[in-house]
Design brief:
The protein is mainly α. The protein contains 3 helices and no strands.
């Protein structure tokens, strides 16, 4: 419930032009240098998951005594 309120407040403060925009609304036909596969991959979180698995946050480091 708190996270919903935080998100609502942050979205209101962001003053987004297109508050109801979604990934499906992106027009890839205009030349903007957008790669459809990269955008859709990012939208699915694939890149984030790969990076998180490749570089775990909490890794134990062996310290010689």
């Amino acid at each position: 419930m708190r996270t919903d309120k935080r998100l609502t407040n942050r979205l209101a403060r962001a003053k987004l032009r297109l508050a109801n925009a979604s990934i499906e609304d992106i027009d890839f036909s205009t030349h903007r240098g957008l790669d459809r596969r990269k955008v859709l991959s990012l939208a699915q979180g694939a890149r984030h998951a790969r990076l998180r698995n490749a570089c775990p946050r909490h890794t134990e480091i062996a310290v010689p005594i």
